[in-house]
Predict the structure.
Amino acid sequence: MSNTSRQGTDRATRLARAAKVSGNSGKLVSPDRATALLESIIEPGDRVTIEGDNQKQADFLAKALAKADPARLHDLHMVQSVLALPDHLAVFERGIANRLDFAFAGPQSRKLAELVSNGTVKIGAIHTYLELYARMLVDLSPRVALIVADKADRDGNLYTGPNTEDTPTIAEAAAFRGGIVVAQVNEVVDGLPRVDIPGDWVDFVVPGPKPYAIEPLFTRDPAKVRDENVLMAMMAIAAVYEPYQVRRLNHGIGYATAAIELLLPTFAAQRGLKGKVANHFVLNPHPTLIPAIEAGFVDNVYCFGSELGMEQYLAKRAGVFPVGADGSLRSNRALAQVAGQYACDMFVGATLQIDPQGNSSTATKGRITGFGGAPNMGADARGRRHDSPTWLCAGEEAGDALRGRKLVVQMVQTHQPNGAPSFVERLDAYDLASSAGFARPPIMIYGDDVTHVITEKGVANLLRCRTPQERETALRAVAGDTEFGQRQSTDASEGLRRRGIVMLPSDLGIDVKTATRDLLAARTIDDLVTASGGLYAPPAKFRSSTAQA
Amino acid sequence: MSNTSRQGTDRATRLARAAKVSGNSGKLVSPDRATALLESIIEPGDRVTIEGDNQKQADFLAKALAKADPARLHDLHMVQSVLALPDHLAVFERGIANRLDFAFAGPQSRKLAELVSNGTVKIGAIHTYLELYARMLVDLSPRVALIVADKADRDGNLYTGPNTEDTPTIAEAAAFRGGIVVAQVNEVVDGLPRVDIPGDWVDFVVPGPKPYAIEPLFTRDPAKVRDENVLMAMMAIAAVYEPYQVRRLNHGIGYATAAIELLLPTFAAQRGLKGKVANHFVLNPHPTLIPAIEAGFVDNVYCFGSELGMEQYLAKRAGVFPVGADGSLRSNRALAQVAGQYACDMFVGATLQIDPQGNSSTATKGRITGFGGAPNMGADARGRRHDSPTWLCAGEEAGDALRGRKLVVQMVQTHQPNGAPSFVERLDAYDLASSAGFARPPIMIYGDDVTHVITEKGVANLLRCRTPQERETALRAVAGDTEFGQRQSTDASEGLRRRGIVMLPSDLGIDVKTATRDLLAARTIDDLVTASGGLYAPPAKFRSSTAQA
């Protein structure tokens, strides 16, 4: 069988080698033997996955792999969601690995671009999360999976705590393809709060010398929400949430969407929208969602991961979040991506660049950022067959008699914080494609999937555009004083405004003077703590930021 | 909180009621108390899911629910993948349930249409499988889930055997939303072969009085593959698999795709395609795949479910299938749908009706069949960002400079076995939509997602069509002597043939006279058993069918 030879020696041979390293002491392996363990179970050319998404990280195992002897381990093909840690790149720099398939490289995007351009890293493709998991099951199955959990028992059963995230999917992909699964855990205990990953799927447990790394990436300090964010959030509510009656939705991260969350109990409630919009979220437990939850605005939230400091609040609002009988959240990134794709009527996100056809990208010169989950949720699932008033309404506006449309909203200020225009004639993604050798430019969301673009100037409703020229005109009309916007006469914009394709704040009944932070249901981290009944415990860096505010 | 009141009383109250019924004997509940248990944990108006997909069924729990007292349990909202058993409809006929959200109703499609038309059942929507799971996590979360597994231990840990299917997803959706999970099992044992569902997620275990119902739906007897199927399979290989070098794919069920599987080691091998096509399947373990696997054609197969009789063969070919350390398959319908959507370059399926724009549907008068998984896999995932030669080639043919395309192939004879034409001017789906009150017609695969239509007359490549008129002409050219085909002159077809949009067998180097059963790598069920080295153990009904052949 061709596939057997390609996969290196079998599991039994590798486990026999590992038994010598671990001293036959069952599944537990001492952390000082971690690198030796990996050298015994991994073979040159193997596909290896290191758990690491945009929250928790199997950081100790990543470090242990980066310390391996390149004479023993080389030509590895890394398949992993996120490149977040220096050790994720060290395996390439040290000659242990040379191929990479991944989804996101936020913190390491500049370094990654360097390593690609000097030939140290050969990228297979940039994926969305869901797409990468799919390939782990089909043509990129990992021979060895290095995962991370809160606690293990001696049988290898794992408790992930609320940040379950990718662990079940990665473990399943490896354990049921003859792979070997190694888990880094914070502690080994006799009784777990609950089992998230059955011990039968786990071969080795390594207690990490310190708790695994985890980042509170979904905390937005209300003190940093600016008046422009408030204005854009008001426009989003008035131009999209309200007319389409959006009940099931997913928010990207950023201050614009944080502002929407904080305006639900105030501005949206004043417009009579309570119970009519934003009932069901697919979203991490954003602290900025607390006031809306406490106001009874939100029925429930399904989560990709969790958020540090939200543990006690989640337990109190177990009816709102996916909380188990043990009282803690179980998130699931794969299922949440499915939920975002198939059970949401709207995705709201942000971007760095938009071109004349509405294509958007976060790729900029010298950085290979990746996509994460946005492309998966930022498009109508063509396999969707159930309808909803929102979906039907969007489809009708687009002139589609056979099916509805998902709302895909891009919120972007006309200029980025560094002054660069957000609207451009040509995306940097094209240059990146040539320099990195990609067959197609890494576009995050395709223009024909975008339905609304919101800037501080106004809203462009692309559903109502019937030609590429109209789309372009609509986008230039909201691009403000960028070069992109100034190429167009005010007359052209006014024509679209009369047809409801372009909406200015005044067209939406919004007095720009009222768009201030005063409208926010919480203006500081402390306000969020208060709204939570004292249950939200912000991480230290946000507590100090509040003190400064 | 509005959501608390809507969800009925809480889990603790329900479990306290259940404790009285089960006699406090832990999680185990005697089968003769099953209906009483359900009456204690379910409340009027609850959303309830009964596990039942197109293979295994929680049949005993379905019967127990159907026996409930409608004075105690009424107005239930059933959320379930498949309506397969009479008891699935009995809950509506007896006034226990009145609302339904589902994905497939093959065996009960006629009866379901009757119950909808007389007002007994109100359908929310027809979904694909993946879409229904997504909604179980967001806005259709089940208050009570009735699931099924092979074995349980006294702690409620479950072993599903190879037909894992929907169980993990349904259990997770209920257990982590304050729901109650009840599992029907074939036996209670002290040690499980492996844990598929942790006992922490399971509240009650009911040993069924007999093994749960399961159907070998994916077994196609090679003796029933006809010469026409062979011809169409040859065209599929020559017109699609070969030129696009399709390595990752999903097959629907039917004799045409069974014929493709049986032609891989013969016709495809003769064309030099071994190792170049059909390397990675997302597919149930079809027995007709055995010869191709034994010929080394197939690297691996990821599975939605399993297939009866394949157990020993799967254990032998553990490198090909998702088999655990215990030696048995773990399938996963949700992950396989994700894999089919995101990691496959081609979907090949069949249908009952195709209209002039290539829209296809299995809906016919008086039957509400549903979709299953076809719509999810029969479209390009717009969130896909990785490329492959197949995907890029299809995108280029379609004239798309920004992205590739998934190949979506419909294989259909010009007439159905009952003589009805497969090509029609208007789909029955439109009439069904009006009579059942659906906002949109239940189209299985939209015409603009279909890339190739193959009949016994030829192949229409819709990727090369640039206008709706061209698509229509291409479809009429392969519609044979149906009224639909006869409306078009031979000249129009010849024009498209010269441009490679329409291909006849001779254009593909196929001599129709050679298209016979002699080309099949296995011609009987016995041949499959032999190819498996005696490990495939066909269910009784296929053994008798072979004897007749």
Notes: Chain B is about 35% helix and 15% strand. The first strand of chain B starts at residue 47 and ends at 50. The CA atoms of residues 352 and 362 of chain B lie 5 Å apart.
